[in-house]
Design brief:
CATH architecture of the largest domain in chain A: Roll
CATH topology of the largest domain in chain B: Uridine Diphospho-n-acetylenolpyruvylglucosamine Reductase, domain 3
Largest sheet of chain A: 5 strands, mixed
CATH class of the largest domain in chain A: Alpha Beta
Oligomer: heterodimer
Distance between the termini of chain A: 35 Å
CATH topology of the largest domain in chain A: Ubiquitin-like (UB roll)
Number of strands of chain B: 14
Largest interface: A-B, 33 and 32 residues
Shape of chain A: globular
Strand content of chain B: 15-25%
Number of domains of chain B: 3
Number of helices of chain A: 5
Number of domains of chain A: 2
Radius of gyration of chain A: 15 Å
Structural class of chain A: alpha+beta
Order of helices and strands of chain B: EHEHHEEEHHHHHEEHEEEEEEEHHH
CATH class of the largest domain in chain B: Alpha Beta
Helix content of chain A: 25-40%
Shape of chain B: globular
Largest sheet of chain B: 5 strands, antiparallel
Radius of gyration of chain B: 20 Å
Strand order of the largest sheet of chain B: 4-5-10-6-7
Distance between the termini of chain B: 36 Å
Helix content of chain B: 25-40%
Strand content of chain A: 15-25%
Structural class of chain B: alpha+beta
Chain lengths: 162, 320
């Protein structure tokens, strides 16, 4: 049996019809073709599938899509403004915080949520906030450096969107 | 990894509606809170099914044993719209927490009194920051895992749980709630509607966990301690100690706690209580660690948790 779910994804209202056993990650990737949402472990351990659900980072692989009815979802696809990268994305490029790139969308969404709520976190706080997002390439230092680089007054224009 | 089985999705608009679904469907129904356990378990079940009975790796197999009662739920009952299951009510002598309150909400709540420090500690380290945005206090307790961080705290806090069904409501003390790994006295038609913990002046509590990493960890041992310091004498007038991952359920260490009553909260007395708590623990060897190591760790954690609880009772912050 299919159910309808209405939500706002990256600022656009969408309606999807799906069965109850589909997760938010599956809906985003397969129905909405937002394949920037990566699915790694599928059980909430790796953070690759992180999207913002009503502004908070969540593992989209553990959320039933139907539970998001009426919610606002933000994915990596909504981060850049046209051809202009989000400051966090620019910082990731600048610091070489990306190697294979699989964890990057989740890292960026978690980092965005952090900076939206705390514009000037310490490096330690950044590490703590990113501790649910695993990266097997970079050793994390460059990722932390990139996020910290965005805390010094280079706040994104949508940084206060709460 | 996907959930292969189809199920009905019932989004309850009121508590009454949720209870009536549970009354009709019983064990075939799975109440859905944050989903961070339920969805994983449904995926594991699917994987086992697809493997056609092939033996999965041991850690996965362990996980599939989490929900002995629910094979594949026929109906998932979404609780998200039931307002009364959300939020924290802080009174002068007790705090009531709705089961759908997330770990992140509890960890961030600065209104919670020092008496409930153990709960904030547990809520702030369970899972990962991302998981804590969805995982709920009620879900963590109701799943009744022996290592559940918040369940261990609930025990030390002397908490109780209110269960509701179409035939009425009942209160169960946390101490009487857990019956085995993944099992509790909750009946299939019942829903957890409130978690309540007493609080008062001169009280403090703390929870600490040992594992191989700080985030995304399941406790090798968890320890929670709660103390009440008498205003005049400065002696301990009441104490409770609880341990996780040292028995089939979260357990209390009543002898250790009782021995503290009437004594000043000095380092010797706290260390003595920790040694007694170690004697009360009954851990096993498993893939996370040996029983012998767990006993060592239990003593250290109880000592530290008691120290933190005492400083919080005196209005100071505990050490992580």
């Amino acid at each position: 049996m299919k159910h309808k779910v209405s939500l706002t994804v990256n600022g656009k209202a969408v309606e999807v019809s799906l069965s109850a056993n589909r997760t938010l990650a599956e809906m985003l990737r397969e129905d909405l073709r937002l394949t920037g949402v990566k699915q790694g472990c599928g059980e909430g351990e790796c953070g690759a599938c992180t999207v913002l659900l009503d502004g908070k980072p969540v593992s989209s692989c553990l959320v039933l899509a139907l539970e998001c009815d009426g919610s606002k979802v933000d994915t990596i696809e909504g981060l850049a403004r046209g051809n202009e990268l989000h400051p966090l994305q620019q910082a990731f490029v600048k610091h070489g915080a990306i190697q294979c790139g699989f964890c990057t969308p989740g890292m960026l969404m978690t980092a965005k949520a952090l900076l939206d709520n705390e514009p000037r976190p310490s490096a330690e706080r950044v590490r703590e906030a990113l501790s649910g997002n695993l990266c097997r390439c970079t050793g994390y230092q460059k990722i932390v450096d990139a996020v910290v680089d965005c805390t010094g007054g280079e706040k994104s224009e949508d940084g206060g969107d709460k | 990894m996907r959930i292969v089985n189809e199920f009905e999705y019932a989004r309850a608009s009121s508590l009454k509606e949720a209870l009536s679904i549970l009354a009709r469907r019983g064990k075939a129904a799975a109440p859905l809170a944050g989903g961070t356990d339920l969805v994983v378990n449904m995926k594991y079940r699917s994987m086992l099914q697809l493997a056609g009975g092939a033996k999965p790796p041991p850690d996965r197999f362990e996980a599939t044993k989490r929900f002995p009662a629910i094979q594949h739920p026929e109906v998932v009952v979404s609780l998200r719209d039931i307002e009364e299951l959300h939020g924290i009510t802080t009174g002068s002598d007790r705090v009531a927490v709705g089961p759908l309150t997330t770990m992140a909400e509890i960890a961030a709540n600065e209104e919670l009194p020092p008496a409930l420090g153990a709960l904030r500690d547990a809520a702030g380290i369970m899972g990962s920051p991302i998981i804590r945005n969805r995982a709920t206090f009620g879900g963590n307790v109701i799943n009744a895992r022996p290592a559940a961080d918040s369940a261990v705290s609930l025990l030390a806090l002397g908490g109780r749980l209110e269960l509701a069904s179409t035939s009425g409501r009942r209160w169960v003390n946390a101490e009487d709630f857990f019956t085995g790994p993944g099992t509790s006295v909750r009946r299939a038609e019942e829903l957890l509607v409130t978690l309540e913990m007493p609080c008062g002046p001169g009280q403090g509590s703390a929870y600490l966990r040992q594992g191989t990493r700080r985030q995304l960890e399941i406790a090798l041992v968890g320890a929670a301690a709660w103390v009440e310091i008498a205003p005049g004498s400065g002696e301990i007038s009441a104490a409770r100690i609880a341990l996780g991952a040292v028995a089939p359920t979260p357990v209390t260490a009543p002898r250790a706690a009782q021995a503290l009553v009437g004594k000043p909260p000095d380092a010797d007395n706290l260390s003595e209580a920790a040694r007694t708590a170690r004697e009360e623990a009954k851990p096993i060897d498993d893939f996370r660690g040996s029983a012998a190591y767990r006993l060592e760790v239990a003593e250290v954690l109880v000592q530290r948790a008691l120290t933190n609880a005492v400083s919080r009772a005196g209005g100071k912050e505990g050490q992580p």
